[in-house]
Amino acid sequence: MPLYLGPLGRLARLRAPRPDIRIEHPRQGGTHVALSGARTVDYLGSRGQFEFTWKWLSDSERDYLEALRDRHIRGPLRFVLPGWRRNRLSRSAASVGYGGRDSSGVALTAGTTAPSPAWPDPVPLAGAALAWSGWALGSGLRLDHAHPVPVLPGEAVTGSVWVRSPHAVAVQLAAEHYTAGGYTAATEAAPVTLTPEVWRRLAVTVPPTGGLWGVSLRITPTSTPAATSLLLAAAQVEPGDAATGWSLGGGAPVVMVDELPLTAARRGFTHPTLTLLEA
Predict the structure, then answer these.
(1) Total Cβ atoms within 10 A of residue 132
(2) Does a structural domain hold residue 219?
(3) Same-domain check for residues 216 and 270
(4) Total number of domains in the chain
């Protein structure tokens, strides 16, 4: 499977790296030991480290990697490795802020959020939902607005999210289009009126669109019978024209080049090892 790597909108298609790709997510935070010997482990988050290796990489592909290393091609960079992680939302956005613990992938135009123990039964890996209250009609909750999900040329993508409310709220899911001119348009699904206290999965598909660099999701309440809250969980943006089973996010991380040691194999070819650090 090839590796797509580069700035949003200009991801280059590189030859498939060796299959033994090393991926780590070191925990950030200390470990504390009490006098009794009991341990407390701080978890402040984690960021990925990715190591790709090639054999007999051509000079042109090596030059591209060196241009990224030397910041001749400026970041931020993204990579997509088809077949690795289907959900291209960030880990924060896919888990809708982990119930508020890490809201780096969540942005509001109105209201406040809080964690909720609720979780849709059809979705595996039960976590914490995000309760959104204090919103106004037409306001939005955006996922990965600051770092849109990469869309490859000629590719259709589908966004989805699970929602629930104690009242019959009408909500709409949209995929906002990011192009060379910034956010320029959106693909909007028809508003859906929720059945009280029943989880509903919303979905929207963006067909292949010329000039489309990326998308982010927007959830918008369009009508409500009373002041209420919305629960949100298990968001996803994936390639294809239909929503499939939810999985954890992180399939297109924002990264930086850390190291690029090279072995000159013979004229015209090198054996490089590329280390990327998640921003």
Answers:
(1) 27
(2) yes
(3) no
(4) 2
Boundaries of domain holding 181: 95-239
Location of structure tokens 């480290």: 49
**How many CB atoms lie under 10 A from the CB of residue 120?**
18
Over the chain (279 residues), the average pLDDT of each successive run of 10 is: 95 95 92 91 91 96 97 96 95 92 93 95 95 92 98 97 95 97 97 97 97 97 82 98 97 98 91 97
Find tokens 């969980």 and name the residue.
Answer: 233
Measured distance CA(167)–CA(144) in Å, rounded = 27
Residues contacting 116, CB < 8 A, separation 6+: 99, 128, 129, 130, 131, 231
Amino acid symbol at 228: T
SS3 category, 63: helix
Query: Rounded distance, CA 156 to CA 221, Å?
Result: 25
